[in-house]
Amino acid sequence: MLLYLSEYLIQFHSGFNVFQYITLRAILGVITALGIALIVGPTMIRHLSFKQIGQVVRDDGPESHLSKTGTPTMGGALILVAIAVSTLLWADLNNRYVWVVLLVTLLFGVIGFVDDYIKLVRQDPKGLRSRYKYFWQSMVGAGAAIFLFLTVTTPAETQLIVPFFKDVIIPLGGWYMLLTYLVIVGSSNAVNLTDGLDGLAIMPTVMVAAALGLFSYVTGHVEFAHYLTIPYIAGAGELTVFCAAMVGAGLGFLWFNTYPAQVFMGDIGALALGAALGTVAVLTRQELVLLIMGGVFVIETLSVVVQVGSYKLRGKRVFLMAPIHHHYELKGWPEPRIIVRFWIITVFLVLVGLASLKIR
Predict the structure, then answer these.
(1) Is position 354 within any domain?
(2) Tens of pLDDT along 175-187?
(3) What is the pLDDT of residues 260-291, one digit of tens each?
(4) Beta-ladder partners of 72
(5) Is 234 left (phi over 0), alpha (psi -120 to 50) or beta?
(6) Which of 17, 169, 198, 275 meets the CB 3.0–4.6 Å disulfide criterion with 259?
């Protein structure tokens, strides 16, 4: 939005041309989203507390979580507001990629909102039934996949890039839609499963979003893409502004979500952020790199799959409790230790993912 204003003002002073640079708008996006989160956060927390929209703790969960009962939830709305406002202010709104990722993020947020509303306001601990939640996730994910496939302009947009191998690029054709659907829906649920401890999900999300922002920038820059031997995708650079907004909003939320949390993001935040990461990864052709950088999300998801599969097939559990962060809680690890160690693992995995840009 402000990009249009700067383009108009250039005729009066050439200095406004500086807003054409994606890097500057990305920095301003971080600052704007962070500022919104920090300013609006306290008011939102007070409102959620007044409405008694608080966390419901599972009876079979770790005893340490009982003290979290009643902590304001649905704070993910704060993240979505900050991301949306910052993106609309600083991104190029003529860019279809910006609208795709923003709409997917907000629609997954709506699904999460309905789930949280049923759990917390209607006091139904089951929330939105799994089949309905998955149906609506599938509708949004499949809709985005079909739209992107139908609007493809270059072969590079539907090729699968294998990290660390310069010449291994797989044309997907129609399979692109299936991969896109799986990445968006899968990453959404993976982040949601990880969101079980104070700050555990949001900081890895911030780190991965920052790295994807870098991937977006070089993918949308013809010279950098050529130098790094990655496919050039026109317009992908604008996703850097969206990723920057995610970073700012995530850090602003972490201010209130760090241990001991004053607010939880709820499904409204977790489902939306996961879908956002998946969508950006698809648009920049970095699905496999997302799998690496989001390794914590992958491990959390696999722990649930293994736990459920083992119990159904053998009648035995592999972990004391799934997702795996609860396993370590029941083994006696303090919550902050689990959180920080998972953050450290994410730092390492993000660096490995970024190394794929040069090691090819």
Answers:
(1) no
(2) 999 999 999 999 9
(3) 889 999 999 999 999 999 999 999 999 999 99
(4) 54
(5) beta
(6) 198
Rounded-to-5 percentages of helix, strand, coil across the chain? 70, 0, 25
Q: Would you mind telling me the total number of residues written for the chain in this entry? A: 360
Average pLDDT, the chain: 91
Q: Please answer whether residues 127 and 119 qualify as being in contact, where contact means their C-beta atoms are separated by less than 8 angstroms.
A: yes
Chain centroid to CA 257: how far? 16
Q: Is 327 domain-assigned? A: no
Residue 77: which domain range? 25-286
Burial class from Cβ neighbours inside 10 Å (0-12, 13-18, 19+) for residue 359 reads exposed
Q: Could you tell me if residue 311 is inside a domain?
A: no
Beta bridge partners of 159: 171
Confidence of residue 66 (pLDDT cuts 50, 70, 90): very low
Q: Is residue 16 part of a domain?
A: no
pLDDT for 63? 57
Helix (H, G, I), strand (E, B) or coil at 171: strand
Question: What is the phi/psi pair of residue 182, to 5°?
Answer: -65, -40
Number of domains, the chain: 1
Task: Write out pLDDT tens, residues 82-91.
Answer: 999 999 999 9
pLDDT of 15 higher than 90: no
Peptide bond into 260 cis (omega under 30): yes
- At residue 166, the pLDDT reads 80
Claim: this prediction has a pTM higher than 0.90:
yes
Q: Where are the alpha helices (DSSP H) in 96-201?
A: 96-120, 130-150, 175-194
* C-alpha span between 53 and 182 (Å, rounded): 32
The CB-side HSE value for 323 (13 A sphere, CA atoms) comes to: 20
CA distance 172 to 166: 17
Q: Which residues neighbour 205 within 8 Å (Cβ) at sequence distance 6 or greater?
A: 191, 246, 250, 273, 274, 277
**Token reading at 296:** 């914590």
Asked whether 113 and 74 are in contact (CB, 8 A), the reply is yes
Q: What is the pLDDT of residue 329?
A: 93
